Amino acid sequence: MAVDPSPQAASxxxxxxxxxxxxxxxxxxxxxxxxxxxKHYALPRERLFAAAPRVEALRGVSFTMQAGTSLxxxxxxxxxxxxxxxxxMALERPTAGRVTLLGRDLNALSPAELRAARRDxxxxxxxxxxxxxxxxxxxxLVGEALRALPxxxxxxxxxxxxxxxxxxxLDPSFGARFPHELSGGQRQRVAIARAIVRExxxxxxxxxxxxxxxxxQKQILALIRALQDKHGFACLFVSHDLGAVEQVADRVxxxxxxxxxxxxxxxxxxDHARHPVTRRLLGAMPALxxxxxxxxxxxxxxxxx
Length: 305
Ligand code: ADP
Ligand code: MG
Prior knowledge:
The chain has helices at residues 18-23, 81-88, 111-117, 128-131, 138-143, 154-167, 184-196, 214-231, 242-248, 266-271, 276-283, 294-304; strands at 32-42, 54-65, 70-75, 96-101, 104-105, 121-124, 202-206, 234-239, 251-256, 259-265. The protein is of the alpha/beta class. The chain has a single domain (9-304), classed as Rossmann fold. A six-stranded mixed beta sheet has the order 6-7-8-3-9-10, sandwiched between helices. Strands 2-1-4-5 form a four-stranded antiparallel beta sheet, covered by helices on one side. Helix 8 (214-231) links the parallel strand 7 and strand 8 (234-239). Helix 6 crosses helix 7 (184-196), helix 7 (184-196) runs parallel beside helix 8 (214-231) and helix 11 (276-283) packs across helix 12. The radius of gyration is 20 Å and the shape is globular. The termini are far apart.
């Protein structure tokens, strides 16, 4: 059951670290700077003395993101989107290049510094069933990240969890449930609650709606956009579906074979696509929705031309 988010903010303890991260990003320092990022994966050797074959998943990717903005990262399957997301989240070490978040070089941080820095960035994955521990109740899944904050006692933590559940459109009674008792859309709402509960400066969502049916996709995309408007976090939204990106992203970056092939404001990329990959992705957008404007139809014709 989805409920309307109600404004209970007045009774909620602020998360101590929250505003600090955002305010430490001046207008000049970008939130995120990705410079010449390269990632190779070694594959198993086919013969003992043969050179190990490798996949060049990222071949020199650079871009920046400003605080509070929304960047859609699109590309066909295998183009390197998830690899880029993992380097940006410091889940893997790049082969070369640099990721700077809030002025800090992520790969120069000690493990303890990285743990502390992780409050500023959170990730939402495609498959919430895989990323949510099935033995934990929703309230514990959402509240887990708050345990590291000594400023919040158990009662304040519980209040924040309830508040966050309502924010993602779930009744607070969902806190007592286990992931398997939820629908796919509800699980993704829980994954989003988990990501935003500590008020991060930056959220990376890797194909967050790809496993959901169309109606639920639209609801989750609208939720992400609304939460972003409300909380001001920046969002790197990864998808192979330009239709999804259209709904949440201000800017679009198109990847092909480990390289950025197109990058710009959403409407510029959609209306004046230059690269064949962008045109192909535009051509794959779902047919005109009843509420759609002529715009998208034009885009489709353009893409197919
Ligand atoms: P996308 O998310 O755009 O579909 P990925 O980033 O998952 O693309 O993959 C990019 C390329 O890197 C693919 O060729 C994929 O097979 C390869 N790759 C990704 N992760 C690994 C890994 N851990 N080991 C070996 N190859 C990988
Ligand atoms: Mg992927």
